[in-house]
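Changelog note: in this version the structure field was regenerated for every chain. One regenerated record is shown below for reference.
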Amino acid sequence: MTMSWPPTLEELKLDKKLEPTDDRDDELLQTQLDAAVAFVERVRSDIDYTEDELNPRPKPGPDLVLGTIRLAERWYTRRRSPDALVTMGPELGSARVPSFDPDIERLLGIGKYRGPVFA
């Protein structure tokens, strides 16, 4: 899979193991992906998201692209649980869904995984 910026709906569907021809949730998936891209571009303003070869800032790497895709997946899944609970069957009851995912934050370099920032 070629990693380019911004990630595409096809890359998101591939990561979710959805058939490329399955278009049932395309509009909702694209909405989540667009929001994730906008969020990442806002919080990681130290990255060059343009095609400008003269810009000295680093280009998005595979970890940033994958983190953005996984963030969109998380938001897509979380919308089904607005009260932040997931049912695990009658014998196990319910469990709380965390509001953040350390693996995604690590991929994106945000939250506690963000390095020092100088103004």
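Spot check on this record: The two ends are 36 Å apart (CA to CA). The chain has four helices and two strands.
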